Records
---
Amino acid sequence: EQGITRPKGHKVSFHYNSRVEDMHFGKTHPMKPWRLTLTKHLVLGYGLQYAMDTYEAVAAGKDQVRAFHDPDYVDFLAEVSPETFPALCEVEKYKKHIANSPYQDLVDLGPFNLSTSPGADCPVFDGMSTYLFLYTGATLAATNQLVTGQSDIALNWSGGLHHAHKSEASGFCYINDIVLSILDMLRVYPRVLYIDIDVHHGDGVEEAFQRQPRVMTLSYHRYGQYDDTGHKFFPGSGDLNSTGLKGTIGEHFALNVPIPSGIDDRQYTHLFQSITGRALEAYKPSAIVLQCGADSLGGDRLGQFNLNIKAHGECVAFVKKARLPLLIVGGGGYTARNVARAWCHETALASDNKLPDRIPLDIVPRPEAFSRKSHGNGLLFPPFPRTHPNDCKDVDLELMIKKLDY
Ligand code: V1P
Ligand code: CA
Ligand code: ZN
């Protein structure tokens, strides 16, 4: 494509398998793999494939997933489907994994926090095994590119499922591809910095490495009351004082930036650059994993921040400036047309390309997704409508920056 060039001085690889697009979590479920289809359409429409090495992902093996997850959980995930779920629930070795959940009344839960009820966060759906092992395979292939020195930046927009626990699915996440990636990185790199700009707390990754000084986790997230229902914003963890497991050598190697709703571009960029800059300086990581959840954008169906795509992308540009091996993964993002815009823009940033703002509607297969009258057809179109009042006070943010600088 005209104007698209390969970056000088570094190599970028893009890892993906279109089969993840066929998945449906359920009619009312906010997680839509369709956002990955739209992202692919934009990336290809702009011609960014000419700037990177593109790899078709293959499924991760069960043995690879067992590096973090409970072997029973891995067996269950490999076999589960809406058809096999009832019988699997009766298998003795899985019965001990039926947890006491505060949401027990709301949905009929099976083992590992999985459920076939509509409305469950982690439903069992058709083809889910294929989907889980594919997004994980893509992240592991991307990681392999980095640790072998074949890529300097590796991208997997279908990964970044930061809530999954060792033997439990949580918040739309089943396999924690990030934890598996970092475990592979630790064979090669002395220290890994994990940065998470999804609007939700990266609790699964933090928990996995809470005793581990060789991994520093840094999550920026909405924290506090969800609305007037009395519920907390999911998952409810990640306050300023959670800094790693006390009494272990991992203490002080977790950082959390809890943020009230409605934060704007200026405030977020200042927070992000101050705290991330300081973490880089103090921790001196050998490699970085950046989770780019796009639910921190304004107008997201679940998120409560007011970021524009430009500010979201500036986080990627800032981290890239560290010139360290960098894995970039996706995560949340529930207003599909905006997720696709952000991740396409960030693919361009990773490969040193500046895209024309006019989306090539004549080339993308679904131009109607990007040509809404109300939103215009630009890539970084002007500010999202402010859907949440800004509850962030500059003085409080400044205090937070100070407190985190220990
Ligand atoms: O708030 C909850 C729990 C489940 N409820 C009973 C309380 N769950 C959230 C989960 C959000 C997960 C975010 C994942 C990620 O960080 C990474 C991929 O982005 C939730 C919400 C919400 N508004 O927070 N679940 C749902 N909405 C939901 C809605 C409809 C159907 C199924 C789930
Ligand atoms: Ca986060
Ligand atoms: Zn999220």
---
Amino acid sequence: MATVEVDQDLCVGDQICASMEPEIYEMRDDGLAYVVDGMEEIDDDDLIAAAKDAADACPVDAIIVEE
Ligand code: F3S
């Protein structure tokens, strides 16, 4: 199990996360990324790996994935 969070205080709206993994991350009207409803806690190994890939790609390290 992993928890996924986006720190909107750090996010600069780069959109890499949402374009890489739209199942997990979405852009909202404020121009910032959020975790898609229901994806704050994920069990699936492939999804956890995908969440981490996007976290690694974020230029400002605004995404926190904790196992
Ligand atoms: Fe924001 Fe990083 Fe995604 S800056 S939009 S959390 S890639």
---
Amino acid sequence: MHLHKYEKIWLAFGIGSLILFLVIVGINAFVTGHQPPSSDKTVDPQVVGEIAPFNKPGLKKIGKNEYQLVVLTSAFSFDVGTQDKVVEIPKGAKVHIIATTKDVVHGFEIAGTNANMMLEPGHISETTQTFREEGEFTLLCNEYCGSGHHLMHAKIKVVD
Ligand code: CUA
């Protein structure tokens, strides 16, 4: 009789541990599997070029020394709103960068800064960067995206 009772307790303990384990694994999978790189906002990549703010890429002043930089990428270019792919940013400006891709996965790295994100079709990536020093920074794609990958870059010019 006593043995039977202990067996039940151990069985309950075993099943309980197994359930706990599955719950932890499940939560982990949910947390990591449902988190895009830097934002949970989504957008239809087919029509993103017609949707604000991506219908007008480029730099916009949104406050005192505060800007928004909208970047739309596609194979194999960064649309930063200018013909020459150069964005002029005033020294000391805080820039809220918002970017996405129309086609395949691209990288978004401003060399020499902390701005480094992955752009996935359907997802909006965001980061904030304050440009404290004058100079030229290269915006480049650091995810291999096809034959024109090495041609994919733009320039950030921080001016006084
Ligand atoms: Cu885009 Cu590599």
---
Amino acid sequence: QDRSNCPADIEQLGRATWTFLHTAAAYYPAKPSPAHRTHMFSMLSALPSLYPCHHCAEHLGSHMKTKPPVVGSREEVMNWLCETHNEVNERLGKDTFPCTTEKLDERWKDGPKDGRCD
Ligand code: FAD
């Protein structure tokens, strides 16, 4: 059956959300203005109240209590998101991702050097 126009399940919602968040982080300025910082911090801080998977949102909320979003630069946001995503990966028994700027840029902004994503 064609499920392409069905409501998102937890996995699809998660993949779409991570895609948006990691991509937004990769294009966030290296030297953000005060407005940029406020917007990024507000958006990330709002997720535990707005993310439409109740138990996911609860886990995220407790994670953010000890590790609040760090939005002082592109690299800081990318790293914070990567660590936050890894916390979910570990809880779900998935592989973790190497949180280096090089690997994150390759995955979410530039694509691999062999050009297969160009
Ligand atoms: P995803 O985990 O969706 O990852 C997509 C792609 O991101 C991967 O293919 C990989 O290339 C890349 N990637 C992986 N790890 C990282 C990283 N650390 N940094 C950068 N890139 C990375 N599901 C639940 O069942 N329970 C939960 O409690 C839960 N909480 C969630 C909380 C949030 C905030 C979000 C956004 C999603 C949550 N999910 C949860 C969904 C879950 O994280 C996955 O999105 C879903 O299981 C689909 O997984 P996937 O294997 O397709 O890849």
